[in-house]
Amino acid sequence: MDEKLLQTFLAVAETHSFHRAADRLNVTQAAISSRVRTLERSLEATLFERGPGGTRLSEAGQQLRPQAEQMLAQWQQLRAGLGRQHSNRIALRLGCQLSIWDSMLVDLTIWAEESLGKLPLSLNFDHESNALDMLHDGVVDLVITAERPAGQKLAVEPLRPEPMVLVATSPCSLSDEDLPLFLNLQLGPEYDAAVREQLADRSGHLLLGNALMALHYMKKRGGIAFLPERLSGGLHCVAGAARFDIPRYAAHNPLGPSRDLVSQILPGLHEITRLPGS
C-alpha cells in the first residue's frame, strides 16, 4: 500500500478536515480527496463521513486507523534504519500479490538483517496493481505471486504453498443451518473455488481485500473467513470445512540490474516459507 495514502488518511483523521490535512501535507485539497478515494477503492470501504461538525471516521475508518498507524510507523523505522546503513546503495524492491503475504516481506527483511548484514530493501504493499505487471515494468525486482508467470523472460522459484483454513470467532460447523457472516478476501482462483464449493450462498458475504482488516473486523464483530493457517491463532476451525493451498512463487528478472541482490535474498525466502509461522 502506498505510504502517501496512509499519511493522508491519518492526516484527515487527526485534523477532522480535508482542508486542514491539505495544509499539513502541503498539497491541494483535491490531492487529498483523490488519495482518500484511491484508498477507499483499494479497501472497498468508506473511511470518512462528512457532516456539520466536520469530517469524522466511519466504522471502517476507525478499524483501519490503528493498523495504519502501526504500518506507517514500522515502515518509517525500517526506511530510516536502512537509509543510515545504505545511503549510497540501490535498494532491492520487493512486492507481493496478496495482502496475506505482507508479513512475509517483513520477515524477509529481518532475515536479511540477521543473515546478510542488512541489505537495502524497499517493500511495496500495493495489492491493487498486478504484481507481475509491476515486475515487468521495473517497479519491483522480485514479487511473491500466486500465479506462475507464463513465458521465458522471468525466472520463477516455487515456494511452499500457503495452507488455508476456514476459521470462526466462535465454534461452529459447516453443517449449521445459520452460518456467521463470511469475510471474503478474494485471493484468487483456488480461494474462489473453495468458497463456491464449501459456502456457496449459505452465508452473507462482506468483501474485504485486506487480511489485517478482516482479522480486525472478526475480533470486533465476529464472522468466518478462510485465512492462512499461520494467522488462525485464537480462532476456531470450522468443523467439516476442507483445507486447501494457495500456490506461492517468487518471480524475478534474471537479467535485471538487481539480480545479484535477488540471488542473495532467495535462500531467505525459501527458509521463511518453510517455517510453521510463514
From TrEMBL:
<keyword id="KW-0805">Transcription regulation</keyword>
<comment type="similarity">
    <text>Belongs to the LysR transcriptional regulatory family.</text>
</comment>
<dbReference type="Pfam" id="PF03466">
    <property type="entry name" value="LysR_substrate"/>
</dbReference>
<dbReference type="GO" id="GO:0003700">
    <property type="term" value="F:DNA-binding transcription factor activity"/>
</dbReference>
<keyword id="KW-0804">Transcription</keyword>
<dbReference type="InterPro" id="IPR036390">
    <property type="entry name" value="WH_DNA-bd_sf"/>
</dbReference>
<dbReference type="InterPro" id="IPR000847">
    <property type="entry name" value="LysR_HTH_N"/>
</dbReference>
<keyword id="KW-0238">DNA-binding</keyword>
<dbReference type="Pfam" id="PF00126">
    <property type="entry name" value="HTH_1"/>
</dbReference>
<dbReference type="InterPro" id="IPR036388">
    <property type="entry name" value="WH-like_DNA-bd_sf"/>
</dbReference>
<dbReference type="InterPro" id="IPR005119">
    <property type="entry name" value="LysR_subst-bd"/>
</dbReference>
<dbReference type="GO" id="GO:0000976">
    <property type="term" value="F:transcription cis-regulatory region binding"/>
</dbReference>
<protein>
    <submittedName>
        <fullName>DNA-binding transcriptional regulator, LysR family</fullName>
    </submittedName>
</protein>
<feature type="domain" description="HTH lysR-type">
    <location>
        <begin position="1"/>
        <end position="58"/>
    </location>
</feature>
